[in-house]
Amino acid sequence: MTKSRFLTLVLVVTLLPLGFAGCSGQQTGTSQVAEQTEPAPPPAPATGGSDVVTPPPPPPQSATRTEAVPEERPRRIEPKTPPAPTTVTLTIPSGTALGLQLAAPLTSETALVGDKVTATLQQPLLVGERVVFPAGSTVEGTVTDVKPAKKGFKDTGGALALNFNRIVSPNGRAATIAAGLSRIAEGSAGKKAGIIGGSAAGGALLGKLLDKNAAGAAAVGAAVGTAVAGSTKGKEAKIGTEEMLSVALEQAAKVTVPR
Q: What is the pTM of this model?
């Protein structure tokens, strides 16, 4: 009995490892078969009939990157500041005296109405403290009336009337002016020659003077601010280049000068 149990125990101990090995091998084989026999996923069901055409895939996008062009906005035009004026206009007052000397002598014997007359400014012409025309500027004018002595009237000699209308500086600056004078020939009996200032003394006024006697001529001369003496027939009115003449502006004149 004891020997029979011992044999049984030995047999159990001998077969026990084989049993474990068999179980392990069966599990491994089962796992491999399961992996090999895993079914494939079923095919995707059709979405339509045989006439449906599958659209082609979109073309691949270009690798080149196009940058957006910025929108050009209208520029704001800023108003330009006007440059500062480089000149200024000055006014030469009416009554301003001009000291002149003629460039060429004049005589009632040869002068004609319309002849050009040129004189030279002897003193600078000022507006305030500004010299607008320096000494040496040219003053231009014309002969407006002539009475030769040979055509004179009773107790009168020759006469000249001048009108100055423009003054020009040596650098070309110019202004329009209005000034004039009239010359009556030297008289007799100790009476001196007379000058009437102002262009109004020429023309018709000069004719009136020559039509009158000494007393009448003096009265008319006094009306324009200068005494005029009578003269004897045969004397010519003369104005030499060495004689200093003074004429006054009859109206204001404008001149443009640098600032």
A: 0.57
Q: Which of 172, 197, 198 is nearest to 255 (CA)?
A: 172
Domain limits, the chain: 87-258
> In the CATH hierarchy, which fold is given to the domain comprising 87-258?
Lipocalin (2.40.128)
Using one digit for the tens of pLDDT, what is the confidence trace for 101-126?
999 999 999 999 999 999 999 999 99
